[in-house]
């Protein structure tokens, strides 16, 4: 099994591509879903966020108001960095658990849906392939304004808080252009899936895993042999 990092820009249509991949039966780990989980009260990250940003970011239910927190971190880069240092270790821990699960289930590859894959730049070294969902800047701006009901200045500020799609294009191994209609995006996604399924990269990873486990087993055998015989 090997890892594929999937990313995009805000409102570039990454969720559309993920939906198609799930229809194809792919294993997808959504970093956003995990990020929402780790900031719930049972997790340590929740307490640290409340301490760092204050109780004014909480809803009456005690849960974190994501819109209020989002307004802070999009306007204050140092606050965004602070939030990332709190949440990223917890997110990565949960992602690792799911990766192990899919490995044991025998999947050839696992897609890690990570919106800020290139911005964080901590997980790219673990990815065999990186995929960018792209759309042209005007389409991205229009989609974001419509989806989030934002004014143009607010939408532009949120886009500017991320690395531009033009820069991400230079970093990605594969590009899915989502500027057009759904069928065009679906065809590109299917083509990528076929390429990844036909890849033999997963065999090397499995051979290494088997060799590691075999070596560890042999070591334990010789270590414990005097105690058994």
From TrEMBL:
Segments crossing the lipid bilayer: 203-224
UniProt KW keywords: ATP-binding, Membrane, Nucleotide-binding, Transmembrane, Transmembrane helix
Domain of life: Eukaryota
Gene3D superfamilies: P-loop containing nucleotide triphosphate hydrolases (3.40.50.300)
GO molecular function: ATP binding; dephospho-CoA kinase activity
PANTHER family: BIFUNCTIONAL COENZYME A SYNTHASE-RELATED, DEPHOSPHO-COA KINASE-RELATED
Protein name as annotated: Dephospho-CoA kinase domain-containing protein
Species annotation: Salvator merianae (Argentine black and white tegu)
């Amino acid at each position: 099994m090997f890892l594929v990092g999937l990313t995009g820009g805000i409102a570039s249509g990454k969720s559309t591509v993920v939906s198609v991949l799930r229809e194809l039966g792919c294993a997808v780990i959504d970093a956003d879903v995990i990020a929402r989980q780790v900031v719930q009260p049972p997790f340590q990250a929740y307490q640290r966020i409340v301490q760092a940003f204050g109780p004014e970011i909480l809803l009456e239910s005690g849960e974190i108001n994501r819109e209020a927190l989002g307004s802070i971190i999009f306007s204050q880069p140092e606050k965004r960095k602070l939030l990332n240092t709190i949440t990223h270790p917890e997110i990565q821990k949960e992602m690792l658990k799911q990766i192990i699960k899919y490995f044991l289930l025998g999947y050839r590859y696992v897609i890690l849906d990570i919106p800020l894959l290139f911005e964080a730049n901590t997980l790219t070294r673990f990815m065999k392939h990186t995929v960018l969902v792209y759309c042209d800047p005007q389409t991205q701006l229009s989609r974001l304004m419509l989806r989030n009901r934002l004014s143009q200045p607010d939408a532009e500020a949120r886009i500017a808080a991320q690395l531009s799609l033009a820069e991400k294009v230079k970093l990605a191994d594969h590009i899915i252009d989502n500027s057009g209609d759904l069928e065009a995006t679906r065809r590109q996604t299917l083509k990528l899936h076929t390429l990844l399924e036909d890849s033999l990269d997963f065999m090397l990873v499995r051979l290494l895993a088997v060799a590691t486990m075999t070596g560890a087993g042999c070591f334990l055998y010789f270590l414990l042999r005097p105690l058994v015989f």
